[in-house]
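User: structure tokens for this one?
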Amino acid sequence: MHHSYIDKYARHNSPLHRLDARTKIISSILFVVLIAVTPSPGSVFLTVGASIPLFLCFIGRIPISYLLIRSLIIIPFAGFAALSYAFSSSSDDILWQWGPLRLSSEGMSNALILLLRSWIAVSAMILLVNTTPFDSLLKGMRRLKVPALFIMLLSFFYRFLYLLWDEVERMQRARNMRYYGGYWKRQVGIMGSMISSLFLRSFQRAEMVQFAMIARGWNGEIKLLPAFPLQRRDLMVLLSMIICLVGLWLLRTF
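Assistant:
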């Protein structure tokens, strides 16, 4: 079955792909934290911050259209928060009002800033995943002292996400071959049966994996080769990224 993998471009060859995973993880986290915690950012700050993921797409040879489409996933989540920001301002500059609902220019500005912050953060994470193979990403996180339990959960999530999606597609084909129509009550009943069946199959698969791991001597510890020190190239890139972030922070009021 065909899947659109979350790390579709991770195996490509580019200057970004050749960097150490630890360098990219640290740089991405620092960038996202700067974007998220900077109070009252100016338009220049947000414009430069939004242009960085687009520029890195060019360096990493990742289609900008892919980044834009993937980043749309944040809209349903950030959109609700942005709506509350838009209607919660106490400014007197009212653009629209209906009963107790008041839409002001300050509220609109806060909502747009929230949406742009969210988009920049999600775009940075999409770039990280698509310039670093997932196994290298997990190893880099472990060498940065991320808890082993969290690494293991991420590893299982990545491995079994597509297996579960295969199960869903098989169930959908079986449902369609048996005619999925009729009244909405019947359709809801069928969907409920599919969800419960998927849960039982997932639980059964998890038990089988657990027994197989125990039989092979799994003790919960992830074995890694000794960590190599960062190369000079990675250190220079990391230092350059920190300098760029400091410069971006100085633009926060513009």
